[in-house]
């Protein structure tokens, strides 16, 4: 029997591919300067990120909980493995120059075990590229003040909710150093209700970006940009580059 996270993943990937948000592009940009070689894409999905990593010169291997995702991932020509990373990462020590984990860590109960496993499979001086929602972002603070919990407005599979300070502490505690944290700063949001009426106008205004919410599959618009340093208040996504000792 599939557990809840598998059900969510299978439903998502049976319907299509992962959503390529601007935060994904910003995260991929952070990988450009990492040493080229073997990269492990954890939570690889159907390979949307892997295509970009491959174009940068990385040799990509993917793992994902979803069988459907891995089938689509391998159809793109990549090597992929169906695996539940809550137990371990099924590769030998010092196997990869880089580990790429976009929007994965918040789905795991034991964060320290996950980061320690990444440490193990990374080569010395290996690079971790990671992203996760910033749960103290201004819009989340406002929703909390209105009586909503993070579980009500984030992905239904999220188990952990991070601030930049908490994530940095977890990374340091598992031996990462040269930790660089940037973010996607989101300054203005037009929610789904208003977006449905204003979409014909907003789509022609370059200042706005259109995005789809996972929970509802409906569109909203926002004004955002990548920041060099993560902002606990303005950044909706925490973007990380860190290295193994």
Please provide a written account of the structure:
With 245 residues, the chain is α/β, with parallel strands linked by helices. Helices cover 34% and strands 29% of the residues. The chain has a single domain (4-135, 155-185, 230-244), classed as Vaccinia Virus protein VP39 (Rossmann fold, 3-Layer(aba) Sandwich), CATH 3.40.50.150. The chain has a 9-stranded mixed β-sheet. The longest helix has 12 residues, at 4-15. The protein is globular.
Secondary structure elements and pairings:
Blueprint: H1 4-15, H2 22-31, E1 38-42, H3 48-55, E2 59-64, H4 67-75, E3 79-82, E4 96-102, H5 111-121, E5 122-133, H6 138-145, H7 150-153, H8 164-173, E6 176-190, H9 192-202, E7 209-212, E8 219-227, E9 235-244
Parallel strand pairs: 1-2, 1-4, 2-3, 4-5
Antiparallel strand pairs: 5-9, 6-8, 6-9, 7-8
Features:
9-stranded mixed β-sheet, globular, Rossmann fold, about 240 residues
Q: What do the pLDDT scores average to?
A: 94
Shape: globular
Helix content: 25-40%
Pattern of helices and strands: HHEHEHEEHEHHHEHEEE
Number of domains: 1
C-alpha termini separation:
40 Å
Q: Could you say what the CATH architecture is?
A: 3-Layer(aba) Sandwich
Radius of gyration: 18 Å
Characterize the largest beta sheet: strand count, sense, and whether it forms a barrel. 9 strands, mixed
Strand elements, count: 9
Measured by DSSP, the beta-strand proportion falls in 25-35%
**Class by helix and strand content?**
alpha/beta
Low-confidence stretches: none
Q: Which strand order does the major sheet show?
A: 3-2-1-4-5-9-6-8-7
What is the CATH third-level topology name?
Rossmann fold
CATH class term: Alpha Beta
Number of contiguous helices:
9
CATH superfamily: Vaccinia Virus protein VP39
């Amino acid at each position: 029997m599939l557990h809840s996270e598998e059900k969510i993943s299978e439903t998502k990937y049976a319907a299509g591919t992962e959503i390529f948000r601007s935060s994904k592009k910003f995260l991929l940009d952070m990988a450009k300067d990492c040493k080229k070689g073997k990269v492990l894409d954890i939570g690889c999905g159907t390979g949307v990120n892997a295509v970009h990593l491959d174009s940068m010169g990385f040799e990509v291997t993917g793992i994902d909980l979803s069988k459907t995702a891995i089938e689509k991932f391998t159809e793109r020509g990549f090597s992929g493995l169906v695996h539940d990373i809550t137990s371990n990462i099924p590769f030998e020590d010092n196997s990869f120059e880089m580990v790429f984990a976009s929007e994965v860590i918040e789905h795991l109960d034991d964060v320290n075990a996950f980061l320690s496993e990444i440490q193990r499979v990374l080569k010395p001086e290996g690079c971790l590229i990671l992203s996760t929602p910033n749960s103290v972002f201004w819009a989340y603070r406002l929703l909390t003040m209105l009586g909503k919990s993070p579980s009500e407005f984030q992905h239904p599979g999220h188990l952990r909710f991070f601030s930049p300070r908490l994530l940095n502490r977890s990374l340091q505690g598992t031996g990462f150093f040269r930790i660089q944290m940037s973010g996607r700063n989101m300054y203005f949001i037009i929610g789904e209700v208003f977006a449905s009426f204003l979409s014909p106008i907003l789509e022609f205004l370059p200042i706005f970006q259109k995005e789809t919410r996972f929970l509802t599959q409906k569109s909203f618009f926002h004004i955002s940009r990548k920041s060099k340093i993560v902002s606990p208040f303005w950044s909706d996504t925490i973007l990380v580059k860190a290295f193994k000792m």
